[in-house]
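Lecture notes, structural biology module. Today: joint structure prediction for complexes of two components.
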Amino acid sequence: MSRTIEDLLATSMREAVTGLTPDPDLVARAARRYRQRARVRRAASVTGFAGIAAAVAISLTVASASGGNAPGRTAQGRNAPGLHAPVRDDAYVVSHVENALTAAGRGNRIFFSSTTQTGSNPGLTLAWNTRDRFNEMEYTSPGHLFFSLTVTRVRGGLRELVVQYLHQLVGHQLVTGTGSVHGCATAADILETLGANPNLLTNWPATIRALVACKLITSAGHQRAGLIRFAAPQPGFPGSLTMLVNASTFLPSRMVVTSSVPGQKWQSTTVFGSLPPTRANLAHLSAPIPAGFTQINVPPESAGQSVDGNEMAWMLGQ
Amino acid sequence: VRAEERFEGLTALVARRGGALLATATLLAGSPAAGEDLLQAALERVMRHWHRVKDDPEVYLRRTIYHLAVDQWRVRRRRPEVLGKSETELDAAALRAGQPDGTDAVNLRLALIQGLAQLPPRQRAVLVLRYWEQLSESEAADMLGCSLGTVKSSASRGLARLRDNAAAWTAADIPASKPLVNGTWS
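The predicted structure, tokenised, for the full assembly:
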């Protein structure tokens, strides 16, 4: 490694705790708990064991009466009747994931995903996303680059560049309009699309935000090894979808999708990352076009009138 | 005197510096939820001795957070959420397969934070003081109330364990970016 473990540790720590804010009720909660304990201590000093029992009984009554603000409750125990109870309620997790993804979409960092698919149509898809541009590169299972798709936001629409490496073709297309895409209906479409081909989806921040906001995937609540699990409860979904979210940054870490459609069984594993906008990383937003490829001009199409237009709009988070 | 008025200095401190305090507590406790509990426990402790706090309450609160993290927190806390090896735990070998790009660095950083959470409390506290708070070894020793030698040995052992963890993620045999040769990813 070119960097020392000390540097890496400092960077990791910074990233792990960025954006943390304490519960506004924290001091009041501590004060209530302090008063409760002081009451128990006073009782103990005056009346001994019987007093302690009485004070504990009173405290428990107060605690149960005051519900969510019970003095004995803690962040880990707030939702937790048992040892493995959720550390945060679902609404908290969902709102933090949405906020983190929105921030990821707005910032200048590059959202990166690497999807490996096994089963039918095996291969590897790498995708890089910024607010105004995305690029995906698809590789066959042996590692041959066979397809790339680059979409750029331009005045009045989106410009699409497709490179077919096997056929040595380059195609340009202008997709006019914004292709208005409305939240949950499109998220349902996307989930359906995931079942068909997960590699079509490259704007993961927008996609996941929609999936979470529309409750197409929900938090299972449990936090283990610093990760929170989301899963798709869709009864009609022919397979399974599991996403793991970093419990510190609330950004997705991994997503595993399986299809159990007969004849179309596959599993795709996507690893997400956030990269700084260095020159080397920004270079991934453009696909390499070797000399001698044949240029094809595709007629412009209107977004919103075709599936492709909707997909393009989604890829840029509209 | 109502508690709100009595501890208004603490309320103002948490409103002003709550994020930084929670960040420290989170690194010491291993997760944001456990960090918030640690911070709450430290606030309770400071409230109990509030009449003695004459100087900067933040210094007092920070010291309390560290002392609770090292000495008592692990005894008092509930069973931790991290249950050891689980299917969701980052697995270097599994994640590296077919993953030739920048996520290695992201996963390495995640693995380091997980490794930090699994260190013994004193080693973790020393590493947080040294590389998060950027304190010197003697300042760290003063904060924890231990000897300089203890800080040195704890830091050395903690870093050695993290280095072992990180070794699985070293990208030496994986190219930083994919070289494309005749359209083939080699």
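Point to remember: Chain A touches chain B through 70 residues (CB under 8 Å).
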